Amino acid sequence: MIVLSAEDVRRAVAMSTAIDAVRDGFRELAAGNFVLPPRQIFGDGAVLVMSAYHSPTGTAVVKKIGIALDQVPAIRATVIWTGDGEQLVAEGSSITTLRTGAVVGVATDLLAPADASRLTVIGTGAQAPDQVRAVLAVRPIADVTIVGRSAERAAVLARDLAKEFPDIRFTSGTELGDPQIVCCATSSSTPLFSADDLPDTVHVNAIGAFRPTMRELPRDLFTDSTVVVDQREAALEESGEIIDAVESGTLSTNDLVELGTALSAPPPKRSRTVFKSVGVGCQDWAIAHALAQRGPENSAP
Predict the structure, then answer these.
(1) CA 20 to 30 Å from 297, out of 28, 148, 190, 253?
(2) 128-142, 165-179, 285-299: segment of lowest average pLDDT
(3) Same domain flag for 39 and 156
(4) Cα distance between residue 42 and residue 45, in whole Å
């Protein structure tokens, strides 16, 4: 059995590798090669259990997540991957932030303007750094703005990321500015902005809201946007903003394009594009599979 710490995960899988792995995972999902049971939710979302079985390889992953939004870190998780007579157990919070960043990288690469150079990230929690890393991996970003409820935390995150990416300009504040790409990574229960706050041409990623009671995006954003989701069934069960938009008649279920389908048949793009993710098991499988392929001699020190 291979046991990996968060540091082992980070050393073994770079963001560019994670993006490629997750992109392949969604293509496999669209091809019907995964069995994805519905996510099990306990204690009003305090504990989540996700699983995925990849039929062609006979490999599987199970992830248990504990969520306490009033604590730091807010997410604690463990991932177990099995296949080919091997078992891999890894610290799951690092895999969660990595795979969530990676899926945003996949969607941004598909939907955002090819020359986009301005990124705004709303949120200063554990997910935020990998949102930045993923977008930087697929677009020529020159300016990044970090927005958060705490100006101090936003400034600290901006300074930390500036050390990691010294050639990019990082600022912090409370205003969206004039972004070409927006990443939302918060636990908000109310929309973070109105559609009028955004430029006419923009790509928006939203990954923070994972319960029906949560909403990062405003209803009016969906009126004239191309909308891509990680999985339609999951979004209709768990995404507060998608549920609200469908129930209000702003969106129909036919308006929701699944990411795996969009990768092979890109949808017509309006000037505004939205990617909404609640997270699905094939993402965890993709990262765990990448770790397992490296073998014990390369996965751990």
Answers:
(1) 28
(2) 285-299
(3) no
(4) 6
In total, the chain counts a number of residues equal to 301
Distance of alpha carbon 66 from the chain centroid: 18
Q: Which two tokens stand for residue 287?
A: 């990262």
Is the domain of 13 the same as that of 110? no
The beta strand positions in the chain, using DSSP E, are 2-4, 34-35, 40-42, 47-54, 59-67, 75-83, 86-91, 118-122, 143-147, 169-173, 181-184, 202-206, 225-229, 256-258, 272-276
What pLDDT score does 85 carry?
80
**From start to end of 20-123, where are the E strands?**
34-35, 40-42, 47-54, 59-67, 75-83, 86-91, 118-122
> How far apart are the C-alpha atoms of 231 and 147, rounded to whole Å?
28
Contacts of 297 (CB under 8 A, 6+ apart): none
Residue 207 in contact with residue 100, Cβ under 8 Å? yes
CB atoms within 10 A of CB 69: 11
Instruction: Identify whether residues 127 and 244 lie together within a single domain.
Output: yes
Measured between alpha carbons, how far is residue 161 from residues 29, 53, 122, 166, 168 in Å? 33, 36, 14, 8, 9
Quick one: 118 and 47 in the same domain?
A: no
Check whether residue 141 and residue 272 sit in a common domain. Answer: yes
Token pair listed for 95: 């895999």
151 and 242 belong to one structural domain: yes
> 273 and 111 in contact (C-beta within 8 Å)?
yes
45 and 133 co-located in one domain: no
Answering whether pTM is above 0.70, one says yes
pLDDT band at 297 (very low <50, low <70, confident <90, very high): very low
Number of domains observed in the structure of the chain: 2
